[in-house]
Amino acid sequence: MKLLRAFAYTVEPSRLTQPADVSGGLIPPDRSFALVLEQSAKPIDEDGVPIAFNGTDPVTRSHPVRDLCRALALEVPAKALAASRALAERLARATDSRSETALFVAAVYSLEGGVRRLHLWTFPREEALRFRAGKDPQIEVLTDIFSKRSHMRKGARFEGRDDRVGFLNGKAFDYQAHYSARQVADFWIVTFLGAQLEITASAGTKIVADCLRQAFERSDTAAEKDELYRATIALRASRRPRWSLKSFADEFLPSVDLRQRLLDLAPNAESRSALFDLDRAELESLIDTRIFRLEDGVMVSAPFSTVGKSVQLSGDQNRLLRYEGKVVKEQLRKSSRKRG
User: Would you list the domain boundaries of the chain?
Assistant: First the structure.
């Protein structure tokens, strides 16, 4: 991994002021500084959480921060410099008087295969004492010091090539709001980066499927069951690649009460808004059949594609099921019900 260029800015909290107060620019190459940056990147690997940009345009993949990251990492020096300053200004506007002046650093690395990696950091300003021993000891108060070890520092990493999928997701760390302790803080990941937690396609698809099944079983009315069924069908048919449990509920569940009950079934608060790429094949393997138990003990197992067609439902409180079809096979088997 080779350091190509780095940018640094002092960032003053500017949420309530205009314009954003930043000062800095391109940093000359320096081996000791490069080593500090490499050491600072370790927490991203060790403690970072997967993130993905929130609200990316589904066609162009455009996103304000992703576009700036791509320009900073892939464009010519002049455009990279402009992008780095725009990110620093965005960070300034994301902070208010509760935050101290910080050092914002962006570093671009070259990897094999034409891949570029971008590291972003913010280091808080701290006061330090410089002591000079000797015949006339002296102490000097240093105020223009930025801590590379403070637990208030934050970081993020994105990488990719100059294509549609590069820089779409990454990793971030924030010691002040670790995701295993509570919901990730808005300041760094949500407000500045415009991102959300990301989970794997398999894990996210399973969360949606599990919540749908539980909500369906706990629903008391036919109207709610039909709403959940229609939502499931709509999700399976959608062309949108990236979802969260919350975005699914907001998109396909008109009932506010049912929507909230579905979200309450999520494993934790973070998983409600965590982004994932929907695995439609896995979703269909997890939810592809509606099972009806009739009042005389008859069980009807109906694939989704048959409900509303050969399998007809009517009524609400006293629901009726009607089915007519050609018998192609018959068999006898032992009942699975226990005798009591």
Answer: 2-197, 201-314
